[in-house]
Amino acid sequence: MNVNAKHADERRLDAQFAFLLEADRLKQVIRATTLADGSRHENSGEHSWHLALYALALADQAGPGVSIDRVIRMLILHDLVEIDVGDVPIHSANGTAHGSAQVTAAEAKAADRIFGLLPTDIGADLRALWEEFEAAETPDAVFAKALDRVQPVLHNIAAGGGSWKDYNVTFDQLDARVGQKVARGAPAVWTYVRKRARGFFDQL
């Protein structure tokens, strides 16, 4: 290996490890959702890991043609932009902040910076997966989005209300903001979880 090639390899590794070290900051982003036992709020690194496990455990709930490997990759990547933007709870400000033009633009800028740390070939591939998840149009992304929406529901039920109490969420709001996306990607999962959520709210 000549000197130039060696230096190029080192620069590539420099970029790869710079990205990985930056990704560690996701563990510092505190989410609105608590752990299932309600003992503390979860961080976005924990959330991403848990969703990857959801994809493995609920693979049989995926629609035709869904690649669980690609779903897992999306879920590991999907919240990296929160390093810059932070967690934007779906129930905050009556749901208007989540998905707003301002938040979308901030997340795109964060994606430019974070995925831009990587060598171009890797960064472009991972950025494309992130964009696919955000668009939620392909079967893989629709299933991934469904899992992202359903996990906090189960945590809130287990924790006795969790962030629902913080944001004064009603069952109808949950059904409208969360249920449609879960049902689109995993209908049997939403039927199961919706019944339990309905029972929880009926007891309040």
Describe this structure in words.
Residues 23-190 form the HD domain. InterPro entries: HD_domain, YfbR/HDDC2. Keywords: Hydrolase, Metal-binding. This is HD domain-containing protein. By secondary structure, this protein is mainly α. It has a single domain, classed as Orthogonal Bundle (Hypothetical protein af1432). Helix content is 66%, strand content 4%. It is built from 10 helices and 2 strands. The chain has helices spanning 3-23, 44-57, 68-77, 82-85, 101-115, 120-135, 139-158, 163-166, 171-185, 187-202, and strands at residues 30-34, 41-43. A two-stranded antiparallel ribbon has the order 1-2. Strand 1 and strand 2 (41-43) form a beta hairpin. Helix 3 (68-77) packs across helix 6 and helix 9 (171-185) runs antiparallel to helix 10. The longest helix has 21 residues, at 3-23. It is elongated and about 70 Å long. The mean pLDDT is 95.
Using brief descriptors, characterize the structure shown.
2 strands, Hypothetical protein af1432, single chain, mainly alpha, 10 helices, 204 residues, two-stranded antiparallel ribbon
Short summary:
The protein has 204 residues and is mainly α. The protein is 66% helix and 4% strand.
The percent range for strand residues is under 5%
The computed structural class is: mainly alpha
Q: If helices are DSSP runs of H or I spanning 4 or more residues, what is the number of helices?
A: 10
H/E element string?
A: HEEHHHHHHHHH
The CATH class is Mainly Alpha
What's the arrangement of strands in the largest beta sheet? 1-2
> How much helical structure, as a percent, in the residues?
55-70%
Distance between the terminal alpha carbons, to the nearest Å? 69 Å
Mean pLDDT rating = 95
- What can be said about the biggest beta sheet? 2 strands, antiparallel
- Provide the CATH topology: Hypothetical protein af1432
Give the domain tally: 1
**Which residues sit in consecutive blocks of at least 5 with pLDDT less than 50?**
none
- What's the Cα radius of gyration? 18 Å
CATH architecture identity: Orthogonal Bundle
Compute the number of strand runs.
Answer: 2
Backbone shape: elongated
CATH H level, superfamily name: Hypothetical protein af1432
